[in-house]
Amino acid sequence: MYQEYFGLRELPFTLTPNTHFYLKSATHQQALEMLVVALQNREGFLKVTGEVGTGKTLLCRKLLNMLEGDFLTAWIPNPNFAASTLYCVLADELGATLDNDALNELNAAANDVTTERHVLALRRINECLIKHAQHGRPVVLVIDEAQTMPRDTLEALRLLTNLETESDKLLQVVLFGQPELDTVLAGHDLRQLRQRITFSHRLQPFTREDIERYIAHRMVQAGYAGGRLFEARAVTLLTRASRGVPRLINILCHKALMLCYGKGERIVRAAHVKAAVKDTESCSLAWSGWRRLWSWGA
């Protein structure tokens, strides 16, 4: 592989959301700062949305790392389950114990969030939240891929945030999701939850300047100590083909470096990127509709 060839300690463009490679881009920093400040101010619901591959999971993990110590965090990476399971998972994350009878009762009511079947779980969770509040540790529930949550589970999540003292919310919730989450929340039946989202942010694709910084940052973090590696034309093509989506940038950069290494070259050129694009189904160098319209207007 090209790792030794370019003097790298590790591969710089893997798809694993490693916070070691986190770049303080404008859109990600705006989201992170909004989340941290809002959580410190004990806001109830927060939301971050973005297209597939724009770095939501990486941002989610960065937030969890920053909250460690000052907050008690519960993380649910895949929330596509029934409301009863949500209560059980949260209870487990908080260390609240549920006896077998209570678990059986909750499981028997997988699609019912309305009344007494969740009373015991809610009571145990509430007791646990109060205990942490008394010790000065706010509790934050972070949910990734929130667009996959069934509507009943989203409503159950809203009911959880009713747990509060006279002055503070006992549970704060951060939702990370694709734009489909906004479509779900726009439903009339979820208007109460929608109204409780006090702050939100939409992650934007990287600009060409962002991509320049992104590539350089990842290469340095991986141990690269040489000069410019990706020529300007190659970065331009990367921007066009990836549409500014970090996951696609990673795929194309990885393939371009492999091609560069395979040919015994030291600079990633436009030809390497073109070959990488041709080998990647999700990428294209065709001009997008808005770019064509812009050029016609100009």
What would a concise description of this structure say?
By secondary structure, the protein is α/β, with parallel strands linked by helices. Helices cover 50% and strands 9% of the residues.
Polypeptide structure, described:
The chain is of the alpha/beta class. Helix content is 50%, strand content 9%. The chain is built from 14 helices and five strands. It has helices spanning 2-5, 26-40, 56-67, 83-94, 100-107, 119-134, 151-160, 180-185, 191-196, 208-221, 232-242, 246-262, 270-278, 289-297, and strands at 45-49, 72-76, 139-143, 171-177, 197-202. It has a five-stranded parallel sheet, with helices on both faces. α7 links the parallel β3 and β4 (171-177). α11 crosses α12 (246-262). It starts with a helix and ends with a helix.
Features:
298 residues, alpha/beta, 5-stranded parallel β-sheet, 9% strand, elongated, disordered C terminus
Shape: elongated
Unreliable spans:
109-115, 289-298
Rg? 23 Å
* Gap from first CA to last CA: 45 Å
Largest sheet: 5 strands, parallel
Strand percent estimate: 5-15%
The SS-based structural class is alpha/beta
Distinct helical segment count: 14
**How helix-rich are the residues, as a percent range?**
40-55%
Number of strands: 5
